[in-house]
Amino acid sequence: MFKTGGGTPKLLSTSIDERLAAMGALIEPLPCRFDCDHEYETAVSSGTQEHLNNIRRVLQKLKEANLKLSPSKCHLFRREVTYLGHIISAEGVRTYPDKISAVKNWKSPTDVHQLRSFLGLCTYYRKFVKDFPTIARPLHKLTEARPKFIWTDECNNTFNKLKDSLTSAPILAYPETGKQFILDTDASRESIGAVLSQEIDGQERVIAYFSKCLSRPERNYCVTRKELLAIVKAVEHFHPYLYGRRFLLRTDHASLIWLLNFKKSGRPNSHVDTKATGV
């Protein structure tokens, strides 16, 4: 175990929090966008001159605090950066090629441990895959406690479909607060899902996906109630984007038009109905 100059053990669990707090206090007064997390400090600018000025301000602050940077770990004037397994650029957020290459070249699992490792990697990028729980469900069922690991044709088809979905994952666009959000929701027998998007530069771009497997009681809901649940859960999930804004909600279930005339009269007959009054 090593110690820093101030005496905090480098491998102590609280050392990262202390570093983040110190960097936050140091950089916060600066008039630039500078984000800190457990691994990176990132300065974001809209142009070259602004970026140069921001870097100068940050370096001056670090110098005043007697802090040093490792040149080999500094990446300046990048149009895209690798960040927590993702590629961040002006165009949007996309999956990291090396990780996706590992998924693409993954051989069919021969035991539960290999399958869980594969699903763990895929789950990290689930926000790039529409209806991820529905696609991956047969594989998740196989990880449950069973006497034998039996790799069926259905499992193999699901395995390949999941790999194809990840290798062809779209670039997720950044939300633009001045434009209307579009929320598409849907429900199936065992899961619900939603897509948050916006019209950007004349085309509809995906901002994020949401999906969730239904519990056993929820799977017994009628179709209309499942579709309603999809709306409720999607609005809850995308609350930071949708709260206080007018947005377009699209669903393929015509029966839900009754929501437009829903009145808070009488006692709601279910948990979903109670939540629906706030949609």
UniProtKB/TrEMBL annotation:
Name the Enzyme Commission number(s) assigned to this protein. 2.7.7.49
Query: What's a Pfam family in this record?
Result: RT_RNaseH_2
Answer whether the UniProt record assigns the keyword Nucleotidyltransferase to this protein. Answer: yes
Magnesium listed as a keyword: no
Question: Which residue ranges does UniProt annotate as crossing the membrane?
Answer: none
Gene3D superfamilies documented for this protein: 3.10.20.370, 3.30.70.270
One term of GO molecular function: endonuclease activity
Q: What gene makes this protein?
A: pol
Native source organism of the sequence:
Trichonephila clavata (Joro spider)
Query: Which SUPFAM superfamilies does the record cross-reference, listed alphabetically?
Result: DNA/RNA polymerases
Q: What keywords tag this UniProt record?
A: Endonuclease, Hydrolase, Multifunctional enzyme, Nuclease, Nucleotidyltransferase, RNA-directed DNA polymerase, Transferase
| Protein name according to UniProt | RNA-directed DNA polymerase
Domain spans labelled Reverse transcriptase/retrotransposon-derived protein RNase H-like: 151-248
